Known about the structure:
- The chain is α/β, with parallel strands linked by helices and about 240 residues long.
- It folds into two domains: about 1-130, Rossmann fold (3-Layer(aba) Sandwich), CATH 3.40.50; about 135-230, Orthogonal Bundle (Arc Repressor Mutant, subunit A), CATH 1.10.10.
- Helix content is about 40%, strand content about 20%.
- It has helices at about 20-35, 45-55, 70-80, 95-105, 115-130, 165-175, 180-190, 200-210; strands at about 15, 35-40, 60, 85-90, 110, 135-140, 145, 150-155, 155-160, 180, 220-225, 230.
- The chain has a five-stranded parallel β-sheet with strand order 2-1-3-4-5, with helices on both faces. A four-stranded antiparallel β-sheet has the order 6-7-8-9, with helices on one face. A three-stranded antiparallel β-sheet has the order 10-12-11.
- Strand 8 (about 150-155) and strand 9 form a beta hairpin.
- Bound molecules: calcium ion.
- Calcium ion binds near residues 19, 20, 62 and 64.
Amino acid sequence: MAAYETRHETDMRILIVEDERKTGDYLKQGLGEAGFVTDLARDGIDGVHRALAEDYDLVLLDVMLPGRDGWQVLRELRQAGRSMPVLFLTARDQVADRVKGLELGADDYLVKPFAFSELLARVRTLLRRGQAREPDRLHAADLELDLLRRRVVRAGRRIDLTAKEFALLELLLRRRGEVLPRSLIASQVWDMNFDSDTNVIDVAVRRLRAKIDDGFEHRLIRTVRGMGYVLEAPDASP
Ligand code: CA
């Protein structure tokens, strides 16, 4: 199973995009005092620029902004593949717009004026939810599988896999420590019912092993006779 990294709030980075000087300063100061690392952008263009240049855990996004408005900022972030939670700050007369924001992929919104305690509670909820998101990398010992880049590296060495081998390794990593019967592998990776006459799975596992295990001291994939295959790593991370 993939281990989620637990992080402290002091490591959490929040980008505030807010053009109203007083509100921006107030948010930056308040969140800073609450232990977050914050950056402040005062218009939409700078907001997009910063959000794409750095790794933020959350964006606080005002709707009415010079340069690009909050909707455009959000759209650009999502189009660029950024999935960090976004909390919209909207004025009371933009209530109808809230729906639009949520459709565009905002995670929550807060109507101005708001109590700081309320903002802090929403921020913490979103950050917790963000942490529980699907990781984009799976690990076992010195093997790393990058789900976004579709790349596998072991001990710093890049390993080329076919699409099926990648899917097979991903399944073994996700269910690490569990003995997976051939029938389960067949349905999950080949989308087919297992036919005991076919050796397609054994052949694929053998090829995968040759690529990721040969030449390494610790073999990760093990055959459990009469049952199936299991991926086990010598490190004991949960
Ligand atoms: Ca504004």
